[in-house]
Amino acid sequence: MASVQLFVPECKQLQLLAWKGFHPQSAIFWQTVHFNSACTCGIAFSTGCRVVVPDVETCDFMAGTADLDEYRRSNIRAVQSTPLVSRSGQLLGMISTHWRKPHQPKERTLRRLDVLARQAAALSNVAEPKPRCEKVTSNFGGSPPLLSAAMTQSSASPSMASSRVGIKAQAVSSAIQQKKLSESRSRF
In this predicted structure, what is the pLDDT of residue 123? Predict the structure, then answer.
């Protein structure tokens, strides 16, 4: 399970681009995330650092929040959110992965996520038009086909993993570019 969000600087919010494994109501709830949201991507957005929560049920900053209710609705018990940052240090978006059971990702997995985040950010052309601040009305229903591969956990051997990271980064970047292109076309 995973999600990708784009940063919309004009609104100072993250906009859900693609997701896999969310309950549809949770996807609607997380369609836009502000810097003060009580989800991991909101905390990562406000701090600029990765956030890992091994068990949402024991996380202090989520206790009693609507975000915790949505994690429960989607049967998510653990989550990590990693900012997508340009080489110049500008936030481009967020990539998050989710688990159905309490889980602490291994350091090796987090390093791979760092590589994926750097490659996706590098491949994403920031000169393209960004999504607007208005509410998205499309029946997105999940992930575009190109992003599906990027959101599936790889059971490949470590030797194959680095080449898969590059492929996954390209899939994430392609999905971002498709979304930007469709947004720019809808303006005309």
Answer: 79
Which residue's structure tokens are 């601040």?
133
- Mean pLDDT, the chain, as a whole number? 78
Residue 35 three-state SS:
coil
pTM for the model stands at 0.71
Other beta carbons within 10 Å of 142: 14
Report the number of distinct structural domains present in the chain.
Answer: 1
Domain with residue 59: its CATH number is 3.30.450.40
Residues 33, 26 contacting (CB under 8 angstroms): no
Structural domain boundaries enclosing 142 = 2-186
| Residue 35: per-residue pLDDT | 87
* Residues of the chain scoring pLDDT < 50: 126-129, 136-141, 143-167, 188
Element (H, E) at 84: strand 78-85
Tokens of 145: 């086909």
